[in-house]
Amino acid sequence: MINADLAALRQNYSQNELAEASVTADPFEQFAAWMNDALKAEVKEPTAMTLSTVGPDRLPSSRIVLLKGVDANGFVFFTHYESQKGRDLAANPHAVIHFFWADLERQVNVSGTVERVSTWESDEYFASRPFESRIGAWASHQSETITSRTILEERVAELSVKYADGNVPRPPHWGGFRLTPDRFEFWQGRPSRLHDRICYTLDRDDWKITRLSP
Ligand SMILES: Cc1cc2nc3c(=O)[nH]c(=O)nc-3n(C[C@H](O)[C@H](O)[C@H](O)COP(=O)(O)O)c2cc1C
Of the residues 8, 77, 180, 211, which has the maximum number of CB atoms within 10 A of its CB? Predict the structure, then answer.
């Protein structure tokens, strides 16, 4: 039993607005500006994004991952290559990442194609992770059924002894993906549900800006 009338919960969005004249011509710059705003506002987990994929069975699935870098080539995140998302992306590289910064009444949606980052990029990031996270990457067969948590904890204990010197190599099944965008949507909540939606789509090599109805 939920202790509230969900249909009656209503938030009016009034903090800001987004106009064609105020956005940058380059969506990566617009994203950087909004990420900087999210960092400045100290929103919780500003880099958390929902990653949606579609598997070979044509069924969608989604989960949160953390954005670990953005450059002119795209958006980078790290995961287990044999997880559900890893298997989906191997079969179908089209994906969407989605940020929601509630405190700023903003969402950003980026779609594109995903490919693995280079092995050196994965090595470099893996080496920067805490010891426990590096052990976890070996211990967890992400997305597979396990009979109990104890099994996982036993694996962690064994691996912590095996790599006691702190030298944990990157597992071959773990690494980064980069999403190269072909579409961005920046959404700013506005009063009475008349939100601003500014969309960038790739037109040959140029980004075309359009406004979508809320
Ligand atoms: C805040 C947050 C951050 C997360 N970051 C990651 C991440 O960067 N990489 C990752 O593989 N899983 C991350 N997870 C766990 C995923 O949401 C998910 O449970 C896991 O990757 C398995 O997904 P899959 O079975 O759909 O492949 C995160 C979860 C949360 C709530």
Answer: 77
Q: What is the pTM of this model?
A: 0.97
Q: Which atom of ligand 1 is nearest to the CA of 48?
A: 1
Q: Which domains does the chain have, with CATH numbers?
A: 13-129+172-211 (2.30.110.10)
Residues with CB under 6 A from ligand 1: 45, 48, 61, 63-66, 77-80, 83-85, 142-143
pLDDT digits (tens, 9 = 90+) for 122-134: 999 999 999 999 9
CA distance 65 to 45: 10
How far is the CA of 64 from the CAs of 48, 85, 119, 154, 202, in angstroms?
Answer: 6, 11, 23, 26, 26
CA atoms within 13 A on the CB side of 59: 4
Q: Where are the alpha helices (DSSP H) in the chain?
A: 27-40, 84-91, 119-128, 131-139, 149-162
Residue 176 in tokens? 């980064």
